[in-house]
From TrEMBL:
UniProt keywords, alphabetically: Cell outer membrane, Ion transport, Membrane, Porin, Signal, Transmembrane, Transmembrane beta strand, Transport
Molecular function per GO: porin activity
SUPFAM superfamilies: Porins (SSF56935)
Entry protein name: Outer membrane porin protein
Ranges of residues in domain Porin: 9-337
Amino acid sequence: MNYKHLSAALAVASAFIAAAPVHAQSNVTIYGIADIGIVGERGGADGNVTKLTSGPAAASRIGFKGTEDLGGGLSAFFILEAGYNLDTGTQASSTMLFNRQALVGLKNSAGTLMLGRQTTPYHNTLVAVADPFATGYAGSIKNTFPDWGTNVRTNNTVMVASPTVQGWNGDVAYSFGEQAGSESAGRQVGTSFGYSSGPLAVRFAYNHKNNDLVGTPTTPAVLRGSASNKLLAANYNFGFIKLFAAVGIDKGFNAAPLGNTGNPYGGVPPTASTDGREALLGFTMPLATGTVMASVMHKDDRTAFNQDANTWGVGYVYPVSRRTSLYTAYGSISNRNGAGYTVANNSESGSGDRAYNLGLRHNF
């Protein structure tokens, strides 16, 4: 199945190239987000933490994107996006310049082809359809759904996205493992498809990754098997309120990595679930000139550890202009049987079972 996905991507690329006359007209845009807030975390083993954090609502970033008209309805484009820490002026990643996105692609009426470092179909579904907090603030879906690691972004990725036809569209992503001696070790495949029209949006996403590591002359091979994530999400806008619902199923080693792996509550370290379910119900609602966000979630760990969790979150965003907003949010988690889920935000995994945000976000 993975080779079929790759073959389809290459076939689309060939069709794009064959259709391309030479006719260049280009433009480049600089864009970004500057987001900073006071974050208070409570309930962790190391005690209370209050700090100034970059990106509680949406990770601070600067990006460059551009398009070139190649004629005949075909265009080339690129996106280079780097995260940064607004509180310190440092890069969000010490090892990558464009840690968020680094890709180039082709687009026409048949669809879009993208190559490079990209966000996964699974993560895109969480942001666009599943979560009333759009994976940000203290109420983030990250608190129980496995939106961490390569479930969020992947390197060495080829993605093909279809155009929207009568409300339907889909995408397929293939990430090369690039381990010498094995075509399967480390590779990841993701896909999503859904329908969006008027007040309704529904989407299904699937993620599959191979966790094996090939051996070297000095280290033995590590065989960890595969992991998968299935996600079904929907929202419906009634005008006076927008309702959200999502369910997830995770199977296998590294299917549901914990956001905070540092044993945040002390004692016996928590174990990441290898067989779990998640569910979310939430809403957004206009109030005064702003928006209320809220959700409740349940994590059902079906392993012998039975490390379940219940969470809830609430927030309010108040726009002071078209591009600038003030916000506040609060999240709480009830862990069972030594579970290690922490209240996160868009940029941090969190250190305790309760947290609040109070911040300012500016888009440019």
